[in-house]
Amino acid sequence: PIMTMCPLYVEKERHVKANAWDYNAKFCYADNHIKTSKYNIFTFLPINLFEQFQRVANGYFLVLLILQLIPEISSLSWFTTIVPLVLVLLVTAVKDATDDYFRHKSDQQVNNRQSQVLIRGSLQNEKWMNVRVGDIIKLENNQFVAADILLLCSSEPYGLCYIETAELDGETNLKVRQALTVTSDLGDITKLMNFDGEVICEPPNNKLDKFTGTLYWRDNKYPLDNDNMLLRGCVLRNTEWCFGMVIFAGLQTKLMQNCGRTTFKRTSIDKLMNTLVLWIFAFLICMGVVLAIGNTVWESWIGRNFQVFLPWDESQRSAVFSGFLAFWSYIIILNTVVPISLYVSVEVLRLGHSYFINWDRKMYHSQTDTAAEARTTTLNEELGQVEFIFSDKTGTLTQNIMVFRKCSIDGRTYGDVYNEFDQKVEITEKTACVDFSFNPLCDRRFRFYDSTLVEAIKLEDPAVQEFFRLLALCHTVMPEEKSEGHLVYQAQSPDEGALVNAARNFGFVFRARTPETITLCEMGQAVTYQLLAILDFNNVRKRMSVIVRNPQGQIKLYSKGADTVIFDRLDPSSEDLMYTTSEHLSEFAGEGLRTLALAYKDLDEDDFEIWMKKLLFASTVIENREDQLGALYEEIEQGLKLLGATAIEDKLQEGVAETIACLNLADIKIWVLTGDKLETAMNIGYSCNMLRDDMNEVFVVSGHTLQEVQQQLSIFFFDKACLISNFSVLRSAKEHILGLSRVGSAGDVEKTDMFLHDSVFEETIIAEYALVINGHSLAHALEPLLEHILLDVACLCKTVICCRVTPMQKAQVVELVKRHKRAITLAIGDGANDVSMIKTAHIGVGISGQEGTQAVLASDYSFAQFRYLQRLLLVHGRWSYFRMCNFLCYFFYKNFAFTLVHFWYGFFCGFSAQTVYDQWFITLFNIVYTSLPVLAMGLFDQDVDDRTSLRYPGLYKPGQQNLLFNKRLFFLCTLQGMGTSFLLFFIPYGAFSVMVKEDQQAFAVTIATSLVIVVSVQIGLDKHYWTAVNHLFIWGSVTVYFAILFAMQSNGMFGILPSNFPFVGTARSCLSEQSVWLVILLTTVVCVVPGLAVSFLRVDLFPTLTDKVRHLQQSRKREGPQGQNLRRVRRTSSRRSAYAFSHQQGYGELITSGKNMRASAVSSAHSPGRTPHSSNWIENMLKRKNEVSCISDESGDRAKNRLPSSSTEPELH
Q1: Which residue positions form the known binding site for Mg(2+)?
Q2: Tell me: the pLDDT tens digits for 238-288?
Q3: Catalytic pick from 99, 392, 450, 563?
Q4: What DSSP character marks residue 396?
Q5: Positions at the binding site for ATP
Q6: Domains along the chain with CATH numbers
Q7: Helix 56-68 / helix 340-359 crossing angle, nearest 10 deg
Q8: pLDDT per residue over 656-709, tens digit each?
Q9: How many alpha carbons fall within 13 Å on the CB side of residue 1181?
Q10: Is 392 a catalytic residue?
């Protein structure tokens, strides 16, 4: 009975029993098979056709095809519609099938990975897809975790194991997980086979950082949490083996729950086209009704006079019925206002634009041999309309590589290189590195360029030696000596490893540790320190200290941490050194480096003994243990002596800061959504100038409850509203900004008009704010009650950083902006934790980095470096949008001009649904005569070249505002087409009336020839960029028209197929007359000149930024390329602690307990902590205040009296 109810079973809690397949099968849990593809063999055809017929035009053409099959109303052959319709459906289906094939291939590759499963008393290799809930599986070092498993035991003491979670949260530092004590000794196969524990836990969900469950075994129950779980997507590191029990499998794992669904993405132009097709269809019906009424009236008044020799058909019973049939006949004849060739051409253009992206050598990364790839062909023009970019941090903006760059020791800085004139020299790849050959244990990959520091070490400068001794002792790194002298450090974070590695290279090598000792190799001599205590890091302390006894018996305390915290605890004797060091710290921070302050203290033996007794007592109390320990740490960390400071570079990917600056100038808002801790994200924000010291405020939202988050957001929003409440200030500021806008946007009228709205103005005037929000706060802010105020506050800020967010929260933030701002969004990332965000955004970009290929496989576009995003959007995206818009405008123009001639002709042919042109011209007009010129325009046209597009990011703005193709422009194009069709018909009609020529076929040839020449000249005038291909296609198409015209009306074709080619010699006869050519010339001039005059006057009187830049480009054609004028903003005062990224509370206790020690290789892991953003720290230190605000009152007052600075386009004259 349970099996039959499985499909309807709603899981409220999960019951999993080890080694009990029959028991677990009752619940119909998902197997470990995953599926990211959309189709299979059976569902492909119906689902794909359903998706394609969501395009209104495809349904429209299907109805037309059905109508053409009715002989009574069809005056055109059915093949003129079915062939192109099938072609469009087939091309799109093949493309979709190819995309899905690669998804299937990826799924198959993952599902067929091997895993060791305990089956009938032995370990057997099984495919991942065959792993089931309740199975016990074995993992070995460097293997991916196959499913969400409960850790039972491992090769490490106390059931510890180490994992890398880069695929889940983007962090490459190791984390530690621990099995329950009761299961940690189940390392034997027999014991595992007899293990029959049952886990009752939460149902499948997407919360990566939370797990709640209970293990029932041997009549006892044991609580389970996230520290006991290994999630799918993690990698086992530095652990020989471990065993685990599968709790969640396949699509129910937390990783897959965060992946989101694969959705069918359509561009905004596609959606607009659907609306326009409905409009055109309504217009078509109106024309059909008008002509049908005309037919009825004509048949009633005039047509009955001709019934003697033109009798009605048997089916034609009355004039009204005749009008009814004429209505459907005209619907078929006039259907070419939206020809099926439009959609064929659009697909060809998108395919061509995709190849241009794939072939772009400037987006090719030679180091990894990775080219840019357009993985979908349907979204290219939307790349030119992006307003919001949502970016991951680790691996996307950064390389996640920390480098020891500079330091300040005893009031002197090291790290810069000076020439013989004592001038600072820029460090490049050619700069000579310091020679560390004196140290046999150095890391050969380490680079440092200031030789004076090595000289100070060799001269045994006591301050320098104590500085590096501190770095070698005060940390939680675990060493692994794989061979003699070959050291590998397992650090919780890259910056912690960078500091220890720096000490290693300067002669203070960290060799080994036990729970009681730390062994160093100091300048070649082995020295062992007794480790007396580790004063652990936490988010409030923002520092870490160790207490050691050196071989001489002296007790020393070494401390490192955020400068604001260390400076507060210094001995007065260090005050002068503190001021000097603070200046150095400001210099380091101005260069975007992460800083730490280092200090030490000599401890008295008796005082230490008393303090140690207090510490032992506080460690055993149950209530307020953390507070008591914190107070004791605070007590002993007073009166420190300052040693200096370190400066670490968190290496950004090449060109990140410049790319972000350029995209900001294009009015693209960049939000960073990262799984890293707050300070890590803020630090990168400063490094790439998303956060700057000249911002009015960096506002941090970190509330833990709904009320706290609501209060913080409301206060910020209210404060900013007060900032512009003074009407006189508001008015003058608005006028100032409007003036700047008119210069900066160079005549962009629509954009200027937008500033007249207060909401837009407010967004502009207070754009120098930044919002930083934590994951737990974001969870509350995304609730329906607060999501609107969150979005309003975020849109008032120039920079938004969301940290500690889950993959699903990333997708929710993107969805929030999509839903309420109705702006085009782009998400970019490189890990599996970014997949959900990439799928949710309008455009998903994957970076092929170090965190697997999940993001690339789920993306629409991929490349190797973040900096290529600038070229993808500002060059390829802008060109694609520009070309598609021009293509559509011209296409609608030429087809209205072509088709509406039939409408005017209806009034002169008795509304009989007689066509002006012969059937062959109607069939070939869009397929042969005008297809290639418009394709060439859509593929190769460009208003400015790629360098200019990057030089003037403001050129990107028209795409964001839909200025190049919208309902207004569509109306103007169709109006121009209608006017052209009117002139094309009535000028020859009037001329033929004067010439007393009554040859209908000569009349048709004249109009057809005029039409081909007019649309060819018009496309020539519309082009901005001529190539040999354009010339060939335009003038070649005109030549082909005449060749086909003369061939079809020749004696030879009549002799072969007399019924299909009856008009022998009409073209020769007609086009041999000078009067006909004069008519064609007159028609062409009258049709083209008005549009040409309007274009000339518009550019001359109301030039846009594009017009001005084109003029500038043409005037500089012979000059060499110039660099991009992007204003670089240097920070000068912010302090950022690198230490805050290195620790998590409780790790020091793990080291001193010895639980993570083993005889062989040792490893460690945990994620960073955090330090709130601070400014004006020196005043707070002197006042001995512990509270640090984001911005001082003084800077706040200054902000009210000035406008935020902004980079504008280079002035154009």
Answers
A1: 392, 394, 830, 834
A2: 889 999 999 999 889 988 887 766 666 788 888 888 888 889 889 999 999
A3: 392
A4: T
A5: 392-394, 496, 537, 560, 594, 674-676, 804, 810, 833-834
A6: 14-19+115-259 (2.70.150.10), 35-109 (no CATH), 268-352+875-1102 (1.20.1110.10), 379-396+653-722+767-864 (3.40.50.1000), 403-651 (3.40.1110.10)
A7: 140
A8: 889 999 999 999 999 999 877 777 778 788 878 888 877 878 888 988 888 999
A9: 20
A10: yes
